Amino acid sequence: MKCALVVDEDSALRTLVAKILVNCGFDRVVEAENTILGAALATSEKPLLTVLDLSLSGIEGISAAEKIGKQTTGPIVLLASAGESDCLEKAWELGVSQFLMKPFGEEQLKVTIDTAIHQFVEMSNLQQEVDKLHETLDARKKIDRAKGVLMQQGLSEPDAYRKMQKLAMDKRKSLKEVADAILLMED
Q1: Domains in the chain and their CATH numbers?
Q2: What are the backbone dihedrals phi and psi of residue 143, each rounded to the nearest 5 degrees, phi first?
Q3: Residue 143: closest CA among 105, 178, 109, 167
Q4: How do residues 119-151 score in pLDDT, each as one tens digit?
Q5: Which of 7, 63, 68, 124 has its CA at 20 to 30 Å from residue 141's CA atom?
Q6: Burial letters 67-101, b for 16+ CB under 10 A, else e
């Protein structure tokens, strides 16, 4: 179920944004009139998207975005009035995906939402790829260190690698797991 969160003090604006989100394909839209309720709903509902008014009273909109952003893993769209665009740099630092100036039309909000979701998916995919590359590099470093241990025992580099490959096949383990075992025995 695709859920979205709208946090705004203005109930008419919340209703308008909720209607647009439903038209964008969200099955459920939860609404909050303040950041405390917004953060609680972000925790309990885990929305795929949050639309947040920058000019919330009681807490600065940027602080609200930060607080809600820690509770959800989806993109955040900030709605801002004229004169609030100076907060843009801080908003990007906190992970806000998009910034839309009020007043806005339905099509503008739809495009902003689509863009925020697309960028979020792209960033998530890139982060997963970076994480996978870090794991691969980490495994490669361990394999090289384990190969070095075997070479200190008198094996040539190709023989050390072949020995690790054979152990991996015989034990049905990955080369990284074999390297971990060799390094553990070395300590």
Answers
A1: 3-104 (3.40.50.2300), 128-186 (1.10.10.10)
A2: -60, -45
A3: 178
A4: 989 988 999 999 999 999 999 999 999 999 999
A5: 124
A6: bbbebbebbbbbbbeeebeebeeebeebebbbbbe
- pLDDT in the model for residue 86: 63
pTM value is 0.71
| Interacting residues of 170 by C-beta distance below 8 A, sequence separation 6+ | none
Q: For the chain, what is the mean pLDDT?
A: 87
Under 8 Å CB-to-CB from 164, ≥6 apart: which residues? Answer: 143, 146, 147, 150, 175, 178, 179, 182
Query: Residue 28: phi, psi to the nearest 5?
Result: -140, 135
Q: What is the 3-state secondary structure (H, E, C) of 65-85?
A: HHHHHCCCCCCEEEEECCCCH
Give me the count of residues in the chain.
187
**Section 96-123 average pLDDT:** 88
